[in-house]
Design goal:
single chain; 618 residues; alpha+beta; Serine Threonine Protein Phosphatase 5, Tetratricopeptide repeat; 4-stranded antiparallel beta sheet; repeat; WD40_repeat_dom_sf; TFIID subunit TAF5 NTD2 domain-containing protein; transcription regulation; transcription
Length: 618
């Protein structure tokens, strides 16, 4: 049966008369913005009529930015006496504090957005003294997780400072979302009808969105667990889309079974006996298809080469011999230390098989080390490659030049600090992202830059290869994440919707989805096919700093600068649990290969010392 809950964005039943706005001559900036909108939509007659009445002849030919036009058209109304704002907020606060305990906590959610818009109204209309007084009196009463936003907001004391300010643009261009029970909302509407506070009513009608639900009002702890986002909570509509979080079945690879060396060697140390290889299917068991898995062809991938299939089968065979982890069998770890790095190391990545290490530096360099005794070789020259038998079984060994092998390789190309690196699954490619707004693709065979991807216009904070390779995703200061393919120099998808920097990205294990973590304190899950977000998850009180999917794809772990470590269910977008509250921010997360243990690493006192915390999550 479909839920009877309804979404309402305005308290339309509250009918209150307000004083009409005083008629004043519009300023030139406002007129030009309106004329640009008319020109954009080819409303020539209206444009000419407005120019004639306003006596404006010269209109800039360049279009103003959307934020500039929006800021002009969404001007705040002047409610006359600016001293009434303080009294109106105090009356609203008293109403919340005196409400029934069952409704008090949900009603309290309106205090912060109303306070912010009151402050912005006063600043916009030139009442600087009253705005500062309002901030000093009630700013300290807001929830602790909004303190940073309020500090930035308090720096805006004049109207011209509002233009281009990130937090003011966000509040003026978006409605603050509040989830509220039907009975709680009815209580609020009765209060507004009785008090007839035009200041409060106008703000609620124009800048707040109420996502109403049936049932009992939430408690303080329930509200706090999902609060903290810049623009409020996620709506139910944000998390209604179906997510294929399962893993599709692996293709039925056929291969020649290779016997272990100890089984093929003769007892007397003679020449090994050649056994006839037998054909077998690695997936010869009838496995059930996961109903939550996406179709195999939902997202296209290049066909695997024979060498890739062999490596994949080898990895799957090794995983079948894996010891099950638990309380009595915790995983072992391997730590590496970079000596004499002079605080210049920004990021590091170890390949999936722990054979190579890539590090990004503040001086724009990338260095790759071998973690084994074997050194890093480079491919032979083109002239030398012509003499190699391409059909030989050891062709990969033959194309590499033993003479120039080195324990580490230095990669030059970026013109700014390197913020992250990512290995391709086959370890032949490396991605790096930088402050210079580019992403570079490096060959680990020739040790040269193959492509410089230019699409972002600000620093790129993170980059990740798809688990199957070919695709990769980036996160940037320009508030977007972008999906790329290695053979395309332009992005395939632009994931736009965050209200601040996108700091972290992570591919889902089935490569159909991308998770993004932002400084707007939200996590979004994006569909790589449609480019739309299919999940919005709120609950962190500071910027997201780490993301990790469980191996089977059902769960997502997130960590932020608020020292919280949260576990999410992707099936519905619900918060499952807060796993821990660390003493300092967590910077990295990783699930074990069987998905039963989660490790988190944090930095203590600015020393690169990682502590690991383990949790049995099911």
């Amino acid at each position: 049966m479909e839920s009877t809950a309804q979404d309402i964005s305005h308290l339309s039943s509250v009918q209150i008369k307000t004083e009409p706005d005083s008629v004043e001559t519009p300023d030139r900036t406002t007129l030009l913005a309106v004329l640009q909108v008319l020109r954009k939509y080819n409303l020539k007659e209206t444009e000419e009529q407005l120019k004639k009445e306003a006596k404006v002849s010269d209109v800039p030919t360049t279009q103003g930015s959307d934020s500039e036009v929006s800021s002009v058209l969404s001007t705040y109304k002047s409610e006359g006496n600016p001293d009434l704002y303080e009294d109106a907020y105090m009356d609203l606060k008293k109403f919340v504090d005196s409400s029934l305990d069952a409704f008090k906590h949900e009603l309290g959610m309106i205090l912060y957005p109303v306070f912010v818009h009151m402050y912005l109204e006063l600043v916009y209309n030139g009442h600087e003294a009253q705005a500062i007084k309002l901030m000093e009196r009630f700013g300290k009463d807001q929830e602790h997780y909004y303190k940073e936003d309020l500090q930035r907001l308090s720096m805006v004391t004049k109207r011209d400072q509002m233009n281009g300010n990130e937090i003011t643009d966000t509040f003026r261009s978006n409605e603050f979302i509040i989830r509220m029970a039907r009975d709680t909302l009815a209580t609020l509407k009765r209060h507004l009808q009785e008090k007839k506070q035009s200041i409060i009513l106008n703000i609620i009608q124009e800048h707040l969105y109420f996502d109403m639900y049936e049932g009992v009002a939430r408690t303080k702890s329930q509200i706090d667990s999902v609060a903290g986002s810049v623009i409020g909570e996620a709506t139910r509509q944000d998390n209604k889309a179906k997510v294929y979080y399962g893993l599709p079945r692996e293709p039925d690879y056929q291969y020649a079974a290779v016997e272990d060396d100890e089984d093929t060697e003769a007892d007397g140390g003679d020449k090994p006996k050649k056994k006839k290889p037998k054909k077998e299917s690695f997936f010869n068991k009838k496995l059930k298809t996961d109903p939550n898995a996406p179709p195999m062809d939902r997202i296209p991938f290049p066909e695997l080469k024979d060498n890739d299939k062999t490596e994949k089968i080898k990895a799957l065979r090794e995983s079948s011999k894996r010891v099950n982890l638990g309380v009595d069998s915790l995983p072992s770890i391997c730590c590496y230390t970079l000596l004499n790095s002079a605080q210049s190391v920004i990021c590091a990545e170890i390949s999936d098989d722990s054979t190579i290490l890539a590090v990004g530096f503040s001086n724009s360099h990338v260095r790759v080390w071998s973690l084994l005794t074997q050194k890093l070789k480079a491919m032979k020259s083109a002239d030398q490659l012509q003499d190699i038998d391409h059909e030989a079984e050891d062709v990969w060994a033959r194309i590499m030049d033993e003479r120039n092998a080195e324990s580490s390789r230095l990669l030059y190309g970026h013109s700014g600090p390197v913020y992250n690196v990512s290995f391709s699954p086959d370890k032949t490619l490396l991605l790096s992202c930088s402050e210079d707004s580019t992403v570079r693709l490096w060959s680990l065979l020739t040790w040269t830059c193959l492509v410089a991807y230019k699409g972002h216009v600000f620093p790129v904070w993170d980059v990740k290869f798809s688990p199957q390779g070919y695709y990769f995703v980036t996160a940037s200061h320009d508030k977007t994440a972008r999906l790329w393919a290695t053979d395309h120099h332009q992005p395939l998808r632009i994931f736009s919707g965050h209200f601040a920097d996108v700091d972290k990205v992570q591919f889902h294990p089935n490569s159909n989805y991308v998770a993004t973590g932002s400084s707007d304190r939200t996590i979004r899950l994006w569909d790589c096919i449609t480019g739309n977000h299919v999940r919005v998850m709120t609950g962190h009180k500071a910027a997201i700093q780490a993301l990790s999917f469980s191996t089977e794809g059902r769960f997502l772990a997130s960590a932020g600068a608020d020292n919280r470590l949260l576990l999410w269910d992707l099936a519905h977008g619900h918060l499952l649990a807060e796993l821990a509250s660390h003493s300092s921010p967590t910077h990295c997360l990783a699930f074990s290969r069987d998905g039963t243990i989660l490790a988190s690493g944090m930095v203590l006192i600015n020393i690169f010392l990682n502590k690991l915390f383990f949790y049995q999550i099911w």
